[in-house]
Queue: 2 jobs
Job 1
Amino acid sequence: MSDPLLLASTKALAIPEILCLIFDCMTLAALRQASLVCKEWERLANTILANQLIIPNDWYTHDLTHLWPYLDRRGEHVKALALELSPSTRLVQEVDLERMTRQLDNILSRTPNLERLDVQVPREVKSSILTTVIGRYGKKLQLFETNLLNWEPSDMAHLLEGCPQIRHLSGHNFTGDLLQAIARTQPLLSKIDCTHPRFDDDELIAFAKQFPNLLRLSVSLHQFMTAKALLGVAEYCFQLEYLNFHFCLSLQSNGFQALLAVSPNLRFLDLGLTEVHDADIVLVANRCPQLESLKLPFCGNLTQMSIRAIVQNCTRLLHLDLSFCDKIMLTIFGDPSSPSTSSVSSSSSSSSSSSSASTPYSPWSCLGLQYLDISGIHASYSADTSVASALLPAMYSQLSLLTDLRTLKLSGHGFSLKILEQGRTGLSKLTKLERLDIAKLRNPLPWATIIEIGNLFPKLAELQFRSNDVIPPQATLEQEQAIAEVEAKVGHRIKRGRFVDQQPEPLYQDDEDDSGQGGSTSFPGAAVPTGSCSSPSRTPTSSTTGTPSTPLEPSLPKRKRSRSPSPTSSTSSATAEDIIAAEGSSEQGTKKKRTSLGKAAVVAVVAEKQKQPEVMSATLRSGLKISFRLNGEDEDDSQGGPGDFPAGGGVVGWGFPEAMPY
């Protein structure tokens, strides 16, 4: 007989509305897998996949004719659209405005049900180019975001009149006149984001007066906004759920406290790089019980006292960023052993340290935390490593209780974290962890230790560390040391088969031979790969450091006379010790001193160095592949070609987890 529970769940999955709700919560990869189950699931999954579309890297300069048939079939399902530009294209001064208008018209005319739109344009583009086209097709648009810098109030009014459903605006360089245009044409606006705005305190207060039901207020990178603006907003807006004043350095505590006191529904708060104090954050802990996200990076006035109040009172907290708040000590995790803190050098922090040490240990109340960034905290006391080491057990004990944690950042600490020695048991309980950051450590870790740390987490999808945070395996270190000795003897640095940074510096001062060419020396067993490199150019002086060298050519220039026999094509290669020893014995039987080790020795060093891998890699038990460069130099992660998307394909700040590239 069939299980009634299984039968009920099977019937529930047959209801399209329930299935769509389930699909809507899936990741992009899981949704693609679900589309392979049957035709009905494929139809519903494709509908959701088509809801979110990204056109990356120069949307108006590329030929998108291949996209039109897809939009003709599924354009009515697209609800969110991002039109992106590469950083170089954003700085272009000469823009084909006609082509941009035509491209935007072709896209928007095929997406009639669009609700969210993010358009990136070059910095010289005027607002009239966008508002004319978007106002024509954006009847259902609810969110509009752009990096446009040159706004005209009349164009903003025209846009909002053509898009009456807009409730969320996000842009740059908003002025007071622009705020007035918004207030006149869109009185139902509930969310506004302003980056690097140009309005003053009075203009913001006048705007807030027109929107008493404002839910989201984001004003970032405003260097001249003062507490007067916050005091004015606090008089009219009592339903705020989202506040962002990132990098607003002129704000003061009286403004923070006035606004936070009338925001009991606050769910998101970003006060990074501001002059916020402990009293302000304690007020948040007492007045904002629904807080879910708190970002306080680089807040140098905060101590562990206010953070302890947050983690004890805000039970719904999901996101906590305390990165590089150097006065926050590890006692935020509790101090069960109550170590003496009298050795802390800072007299201003000694009282807070002793008071926190006397506080009995109690677990955090926000056990549903999913994101925690404590990079660089405790920095003011990094000299007292004994204090930090005594607090590490409490930290790992608390972390073991945060079993829902998805992201953990522990980078930039000035003391040893002893991740495996003291944290193995606690961290191994974080079975849902997907991202771990252990970059910029005080002491590099052996490669085997990095692998072992990564293997603690079965679902790890991202492990961040720098190449110079890693100690290579011992065998590799010995090879590098031997090659370094040879390079020191040769007089110049060899990097993966080519000379870099400087020209070779002769080992000895020498007279020229009668051919005008420098001599060369061959060494027993030195292998010469055909066409691998050429000998460096002869330098007439004994000091040539600091001059860039010419890259090695595939063949040597012809010499009139050579003092050494042609190197053999033996398959054996000289070791570092053989080359160094041969250099000393090569002077026997010659009348003149050698100026350099010569072609065969250099090529042998290159051949030996090329045997080593440039990158070492490993695969963790989660399937994640990690690697590091032996030279300790990391590539620039910001470089990427067409088709590069954020991790997981997400669009930051849009309220939906993933977007579908075309």
Note: The domain at 9-49 is CATH 1.20.1280 (Monooxygenase).
Job 2
Amino acid sequence: NLLNQLGFTNGTTSSKHAISGGLESDTFASRTSGISNHLNLNGTQSGTVQIGSASLNLNLATQSLSDISEAINTTNIAGVTASVQEVEVDGQTTYKLQINGTQTLVDDNNVLQKLGLLEANKDPSRVLQTGQDSQFRVNNIDITRSSNTVSDVINGVTLNLKSPNASTEEAPVQLRIEENVDLVKSSVSDFVEKYNTVRGFISAQFTYDAETQASGLLFGDSSLRSVQTQIQRVLSGVISGLEGDFDTLVSIGITTDRAGLLTVDTTKLNQALDADVDQVAEIFLGKGRSTDNNIRFVNFTEETKAGSYNVNLTAAAEQATVSGSGIINSSSGINADEILTFTDLGSNRTAEVLLSAGDQIDEIVSKINSELRSRISEVHTSDVGNVATSGSVITRDTTFGDIAGANVQTGDTIKINGTSHDGRSVSTTYTITATNTIDDFLSTIENLHNNEVSVAIDSAGKLVVTDQIAGDSDLAISIEARNEGNGSLGFGTLTASTVGRSQLYVNASNDGGQLKLTHENYGTDYGFRVLSNRSIGGSTGIGTISVEDFGVDVAGTIDGETATGDGRYLTGDEGNTNTEGLRVQASLTVAELTTQGAAQGAIRTTFGFAEQIDRLMDSFLDSVNGSLTRRVKSLTNEDKSIQSQMDRIELRLEQVEFRYKNMFLAMERAISQFNSQGSFLSNQLSIMNNSQWGQNR
């Protein structure tokens, strides 16, 4: 080992990422590609290593994290299981190998060191400088990062930190982010185009052709005329509260022609954009700005009024914070192994961090942050193991007929029920033949869960189901052998041996040699508890009595109106005359509030033309009180009334038609009777005439 030969290491190794009852590897970008692809390894990449009580060959040139995990599990090391865990830090998803059940590892050809399971112990006399996180301030907010390249503080901006300037009392670096002027021009053009389209539609409704007497469908509609008038009134107005020369559409080159359409003077618009692109944007948008660096405008709602509102704070937001008692020895570190148990009081997630004797403050901080940022996969283990007729524990290749004492019969079934990672119910029935292998059965379980779980057999012949999706999990599984052939097959009950969890948002830091734990979020909704298995002396200083803390919400008023704090955010209460829904962020600390006092400047809100039009549209289209909504309801009611009248007229016509038809039928019957009577009378007259003629003769 070159580092050992050069004297940087002392020839021994120790666990690099120890956890309670096990250890973890470094993180890698993929769980399925070969390790050498990530490390650009040359030379020997394989070796026969020892994990727990067993030896196995690992080849980093061909094996991935998943392959190594499976190799460990199929070796059936007593009490040892392996899984691949997903880790998400700053939006990046990575993976690491987790081994539970042992911390006894023996390396070969540095294979385990390359995986990050072990690390060479350094010679303390060779340490020239201990690393530390970068610390900087943006807009008066203190920030700590583990890198000098920071891309998650300002949206779309990457900061490259070069050298400190606070200690030399140099002026802060001023960062200017240029606006996309072409995008602003395009947005202005879109606004004008959309307005002209609406204006053209309204004008078309008011046209009338005297010759053809044709008109728009809504010709003369007062509601539509009111909409047009109110829009024109807004666009011809002045935006109050803006600073500078641009507060009307005319001032930036947008005018109205004789047809009422908007036109853009491109030269004048470009001049305005060159002079102050931010103010041009404010002419259109709803904006807010603060007069105090510690107060930032966030947003408002349609209930907020435009104006200038004083912000007064009575309490600054705080993060939940716990510190160890005393300074950790800078040379010898803690004097014995220690386990810290963390509980996030909001999510109820728990995590254990295993520290080793001799760990110094920076190593303790690193171990805590690494573990708490990890996402753990849930693992369920059965409480009953099975052995083969040979006397050894079952393997994936064991047939059901070879399970000792099970007396499995062809046609026996196993009912599998459960829920997936995201809570979906799953269920199936597996039918056994004496020649089916356990591998067939385990594959059925994996397929039932869409391969979102892996199923293995541990060294005791028990089933081990591992969620392949790390984080909080609803995974559950029950296996019922029905033994229709009067056998005694059973797998017992599967319960969570490792509870899946997402990361805990608690950060550890070195506070002058003292361990400091801080929740990432502010406010009373966020808190945590921490407990050590060791008393305070010679340890992290946390102690065996659990310590917990919650954050504090900011408190205060806006414009003298009540407001509700949520972490660092203060929002005007519902029902406020001016500030309902107005939301600001207060970034100052308790000490700064004490020094500066309650008054924290003012928030000025302005509503540009687009914002006013948007609010106007809301008033037109409100589902209850909107003017156009009411008009549509009125027209709908008129339509229903007309339809009702038409229905009544049609009913009357049907009744008249029915009556006339009946009259017609009656008349036809009468005519028929008249004809019949006429024929009878004619016959009678004929007979009488004939009779009389005979007598006369």
Note: The chain has a mean pLDDT of 85.
